Amino acid sequence: MARGLNKVMIIGYLDRDPEMRFTPTGKSVANFSVACTRSWKGADGKEHSATEWFNVVAWGDLADVTKQHLSRGSLVYIEGQLQTRIWSDNDGNQHKSIEITARDILLLNDEGNEENQEGLDSISEKD
Q1: Assuming Cys at both sites, which of 8, 17, 92, 102 could form a disulfide with 58, CB separation 3.0 to 4.6 Å?
Q2: Quick check: is 100 in a domain?
Q3: pLDDT band for position 125 (cuts 50, 70, 90)
């Protein structure tokens, strides 16, 4: 039987502090977005760049640690999977969003602060 693969890895900067919420059952969830900029040299020889924005969601212990250690401007490595979320607004209009559900987060720019790094290194979303 063929197996599918849904895995994404990005490196980028948080554009805002993580927003923490809780489900009705008390499970924590953190939402934030990450900007990833790529650069290339065009056929004209000029440097070009483009930025992609990714919405990220972290659950449970990973959300708690994310809220404690990440903030706007943090450089992070995110590994997770893509998930499509569909919802209806108050007017009945249906909306669709694709986001990354994080499984592992690594803080890349926290130089000299081993305590913060250890907190993020040791937490990943459990199956």
Answers
A1: 102
A2: yes
A3: low
Please give the pLDDT value at position 116: 47
Angle subtended at Cα 36 by Cα 116 and Cα 114, rounded to the nearest 5 degrees = 10
Q: Identify whether 103 is part of a domain.
A: yes
Containing domain of residue 43, as a range?
8-121
Q: How many domains does the chain have?
A: 1
Number of Cβ atoms within 10 Å of the Cβ of 12: 21
Helix 60-69 and helix 114-121: axis angle, to 10°?
Answer: 160
| pLDDT for position 2 | 80
Q: Is there a domain that residue 126 lies in?
A: no
Q: Is residue 101 part of a domain?
A: yes
Residue 13 identity: Y
Task: List C-alpha distances in Å: 114 to 2, 67, 72, 82, 125.
Answer: 42, 17, 19, 30, 21
Q: Which residues neighbour 104 within 8 Å (Cβ) at sequence distance 6 or greater?
A: 77, 78, 79, 80, 124, 125
The CATH number that applies at residue 91 is 2.40.50.140
3-state secondary structure of 3: coil
Identify which of 85, 89, 69, 75 has the alpha carbon closest to the alpha carbon of residue 20: 69
